[in-house]
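User: Predict the full complex structure for these chains.
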Amino acid sequence: MIGYVDSLPAADPPSLDVRGVHYSYPDGHVALRGVDLTVPRGGRLALLGPNGAGKTTLVLHLNGILSGGAGTVTVGGLTVDRDRATLAEIRRRVGIVFQDPDDQLFLPTVAEDVAFGPANLGLRGAELEARVVEALDAVGMTEHRDRAPQHLSFGQRRRVAVATVLAMHPEILVLDEPSSNLDPAARRELAAILRRLPVTLLMVTHDLPYALELCDRSVILDAGRIVADGTTVDLLTDQELLARHRLELPYGFDPTLAARQLAAQG
Amino acid sequence: MGAGHAHVLYRDRTSPVHRLPPEVKITAMVLFSIAVVATPREAFWAFGGYAVLVLLVAALARIGLRWLLSRALIELPFVVFAFALPFLGHGERVVWLGLELSVDGLYGGWNILAKGTLGVLASLLLAGTTTMRDLLLGLDRLHCPQIITQIATFMLRYLDVLVGEARRMRVARISRGDDPRFVWQLRGFAVGVGALFLRAFERGERVYLAMVARGYQGRMPAAWRTAGAATVRHWLVAATVPLAATGIAATALVLG
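Assistant: Here is the predicted structure of the two-chain assembly.
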């Protein structure tokens, strides 16, 4: 099973707990200045912020690709450190879907690419195959399993990228700008898939309507700090807050109305 | 993306040759080429025998002669030298159509031409019946160093992406009034190549990060290397061609 959310005891450790993370790049540029962030199990959080706010840097901290500054990252009770075995387990638990699916899909066929992660976990044979089938099914890409990624549409490639990570049964799914470059139909299809997935979700984006559609809670990251934390609809209706952090709603978009429509849909 | 659906060398057919596991075909091709190269150049009949073998396999693989020969033209730049040899060679000379040709040079030219063509035809048969993907898998199963097969896999996967990027950059350049037909506008092209290299480099880094994020630790998972590997029967079937070739070569050596 990809999800586990239905069967979890409330006392479980949060899926993601980030405490006081600082980071400066080797050239001295300070990217993160003390980030605190918690995503409870089964929670859906949008990480909003303008370009250059440090969003991607933070994402690379979640599975230990970047580290070395102050602070800790804990995933489902396991703290990221440099130990090889710990890192391997952390990378299983944190499923990052990168912004450009062409960066993520590097093998000649869809099925092989989906199998890459679980195979790295040591799965093989029928068990590995079951993971591939399950993950492709979850994103509705089963019939394309033997095609080459470069022959798929961009939206399909993004869905496969999500599947490559789901196949590892992550504790938390981290999506970096999931709606970028998608046409409206592909965007809606991806939203439907993401909403169905029974996983903890951290969505990094500056697409505010998408955040509202998929995440009930949001935080705003700007200049390496979390500057706001609240329900998505509250943050999006605070025009002054958004303007201060270079975030803007699309022309004509009314977050209150959209939230009401979403609630009506259930 | 568009491009990439077309295979340059692979002929999408179903045939007994297509179905053979790739490692078997690679081994057969290499052994066949060695037999050809080891044959003394004076044994003309032996080369006829090899040609018959190639034609038999081509027929079995349902690959047309026309396709084979047109692809074989690729060897031309490499064998031009062979045509020059009869004029440049020393020693005994014969006169043919008023041309004074060196016998040694004629043999040398024939040697290059015949062996080169047979080698190219054998490689074409391999490429025509095996997808790029399977070739890499076969090399991997033959214990070719993993780093080489990995690099080749990446090239295969990202060739389309890079070609697409190069095309977009070219369109963007032309849209801003660049006309690459003129020599003095080569600069735009040269800068484009530099930019493409940088993009390829940056993409390489992002691809690597994405792999690490999915638990990559420097070795490709071994899981899919074993599925569909060659059986003894496959090896025996494919051994017929190199065995016949070795037989011809051995006979030619003994007689010669």
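The longest strand of chain B covers residues 93-96.
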